[in-house]
Amino acid sequence: MTSDTTQTDSVAETTENEKLRELVTRARAVLWDFDGPICRLFAGHSSELVATGLVRWLEGRGLHGLLTESERESLDPHVVLRAVDRRHPGSDLVEELEAHLTQEELRAAASAWPTPYADPLIRTWVTLGPRLAIATNNSPLVVRAYLESRGLTDCFAPHVYGRTQDLHHLKPDPHCLNRALSATGAAPGEALMIGDTPSDHEASLRAGVPFLGYARNARKEKLLREAGATVVVGSLEPVLRILRGQA
User: Which InterPro entries does the annotation name (predicted)?
Assistant: First the structure.
């Protein structure tokens, strides 16, 4: 690595740090994705096994042909749920499948891992004035159960906006972000969305909300960068340091 390369990398890092500080300090409302930035919901209860379970649940009802091969092999519960909803929107089948997924998420919440620095960051941020909300594709029942277990309910209540029976409103549709903005009284440009997936980023773009990417590993960072996220952190610690006036 040449000195010019080192200098270029240093300038880029400084620029991104300045952008991070601006995002954090100007936010009057902070909209959080749940699974990722706040916790690893499926840390102790594999999402891949949940997706496989949903596929088997469908197969047990003679509905094997309802999913394409790629959908069956996606290992993402929301891919399975969306696929069924596209083919049978608003049906009893979708309602049953969504309820089944909610029960699996509730089981997962009991063994979820808190994202490092998330709890103190949430508690610090709420004391400084900005309103906090959660905008997620997970069930709001699951979010509330987790928040209660961590003593964080009062930091967000009543602003938890999650999956509803209208599955076409799942992110990247900005519906849950717009609900959060309306309820908190924040203009899109005054808010900040913290998310860890390209669908979070797309939803924030469509809602007009500035975006901060959280990536716990290089793969997630690559996906966010490729989706167009310009400010991505691998830890929430720098955000906490900014709020505490330490950076």
Answer: HAD-like_hydrolase_sf, HAD-like_sf, HAD_sf
